[in-house]
Design a protein that fits this description.
The chain has 109 residues and is mainly β. Helices cover 4% and strands 51% of the residues. The protein is built from 1 helix and 9 strands. It has an 8-stranded antiparallel β-barrel. The radius of gyration is 13 Å and the shape is globular.
């Protein structure tokens, strides 16, 4: 099943919580980042406006159950690790994704 997530908060490289607006400059009021994980092992990842066909917004992923890491490979060949954070009942609380020196937290939409 497809799962949609939206960006809610962010942390800088010192692990200090920052306003999500800093990640987006000031456009966040009009725009929210999104992460969609599809059941076929592909994803779409939006953090800013741009060309949806440039390879930086989609790709494929594998999931490592032991480490709770989604290993993402973007269409342009870039790789990233998205960390799954679970609640005590084992449901997913949020996903932590690296983006331009920040860690952005995505919550279920």
């Amino acid at each position: 099943a497809n799962t949609h997530w939206k960006s809610v908060t962010a942390y800088n490289d010192s692990n200090k919580k920052i306003s999500i607006n800093k990640v987006y400059n000031n456009y966040y009021d009009n725009y929210q980042g999104s992460l969609e994980l599809k059941g076929d092992g592909t994803f779409t990842f939006w953090m800013n406006v741009g060309d949806p066909n440039d390879g930086t917004h989609n790709g494929s992923y594998t999931y490592d159950l032991d480490s709770q890491i989604l290993n993402a490979t973007f269409g342009n060949g870039e790789k990233a690790k998205f960390k799954i954070i679970r609640n005590e009942d084992n449901t997913i609380d949020h996903i932590e994704a690296p983006y331009e020196g920040y860690t952005v937290w995505f919550y279920k939409n």
